[in-house]
Design goal:
Elements lengths: L15 H22 L14 H38 L2 H8 L5 E6 L3 E9 L6 H10 L2 E11 L2 E10 L8 H14 L1
Antiparallel strand pairs: 1-2, 2-4, 3-4
Helix pairs in contact: 1-2, 4-5
């Protein structure tokens, strides 16, 4: 249904058929893009192709799931922030009693040829991180990474180490015992 407007009219308006085809192609592209954003564990494609309506339903369900998850995470964050606020206002001993931890805490995870050391202490325990690294090296481990963070009235140290000689390994019980002795000394 083209109208011939005049002689030399090179910029004619596209007809309805072309406009509709372009709109459908655009919508199909948008549906494909939306489907690609759905996590794979929520989208279980079968051997048959999923219709665009089913794709939209899956996307809507996934968005609803994400919103619920965001709300849960916000609630958890608020609870943690309240507990941190309470712990900063009260003494460390009260916090330990409410959480069920007696500080300091030493935890070792044997991961085969490597180990992970997690130390949790109060702010009043002032041992040096290099002392922990020294103990690990004396027991045959090489420290790969070390980090710490302070949350409320607690300091969390995390160290990752691997055995210098993989066939000999690291005796984690001895390392744990020496770390506990060192922490209790302070």
């Amino acid at each position: 249904m083209k109208k011939n407007g005049g002689v030399g009219d090179s910029t004619s308006k596209p007809d309805r058929k072309t406009i509709e085809r372009n709109r459908r192609i655009h919508m199909k592209t948008l549906c494909f893009k939306l489907t690609s954003l759905i996590a794979h564990n929520h989208f279980k494609p079968s051997k048959e192709t999923v219709s665009e309506l089913e794709q939209l339903d899956l996307a809507a369900a996934y968005i609803k799931h994400l919103r619920e998850r965001i709300e849960k995470l916000k609630e958890m964050k608020e609870q943690v922030m309240k507990s941190i606020e309470v712990s900063s206002n009260s003494s460390i001993m009260k916090t330990n009693a409410s959480v069920g931890l007696s500080l300091p805490v030493v935890e070792l995870r044997d991961l085969g040829s490597s180990i992970e050391v997690v130390l949790i202490t109060g702010l009043n325990k002032n041992f040096m991180l290099y002392e922990v690294i020294t103990i690990l090296e004396q027991e045959g481990a090489e420290v790969i990474s070390a980090s710490f963070s302070t949350v409320g009235g607690k300091i969390f140290y995390t160290l990752h180490a691997q055995a210098k000689i993989s066939r000999v390994g690291v005796e984690t019980t001895r390392v744990c015992q020496r770390l506990k002795e060192m922490i209790c000394y302070y």
